[in-house]
Task: structure prediction
Amino acid sequence: MFFTKDKIKAFLIHLAISSAIIGIVFAVIFFFWYPRPYFQANGAWSVIRVLVMVDLVMGPLLTLVLFKKGKPGLVFDISMVAFVQIAALVYGVQVIFGERPYYLVFAVDRVEVVGKVEIDANKIKYPDLKIKPNKGPILVFADFPEDKEERNKILFEVVTEGKPDLERRPEYYHPYISNADRVIQKGKSLSLLVGVNKDSKIKVDRFLKRYNGKLEDYLFLPMVGKNNDMALVIDKITGLPVDGIAVDPW
Result:
């Protein structure tokens, strides 16, 4: 098929507009909704691929094929292409927004990424744990009740009835900062990751270079995500998350 200058110009304009919109959407996704390291652990890659295919590939290519200066019905054709793109974008953004990491919950000896729809926030006792920061999830410390019978009941329900485990029981959520010392106690030395294999050592070295730190400055905890498990690195003094390392944390 012969592509005229008008077709190529229309294609490039469409591609530029689509790229700008997708660029803004991706910036929000990767910097605010899924900042490092949460997209790798919990990101909706399948939805991202659909957005790229529809909005950056199919849309501009359809314009390249359909555009012909002075063609009857051209406005309708281009409008339909734009409608499909917008519909895909709105749907994709809604899915990604709804599944974004909302809580980062420490429980027992690990942290787990939990979505907003996975728990009943009305059961959370602390008002501060209902206010999500603009960037990243709410940090939570989940703790078993002191009452032995209640604790055993939870364990029984999880094992025999398949009910949610501690990290998805918001009635047992507590402020993370107030319990940071207990999180630190469960942290493991980064040197354990260095000794796993060559790839792990490279990734740990890359992390230390990025943050200009030393092995003894940090600890790690296994982080369980919907897509991947990885090592969540925490500050050895404050217990706060620093970043993730894409290695087997177990």
Residues 102 and 137 are 5 Å apart (CA to CA). The radius of gyration is 24 Å. Helices lie at 5-33, 38-42, 45-66, 74-98, 148-161, 180-186, 191-194, 198-211. The chain has three domains: 5-98, 101-186, 187-250.
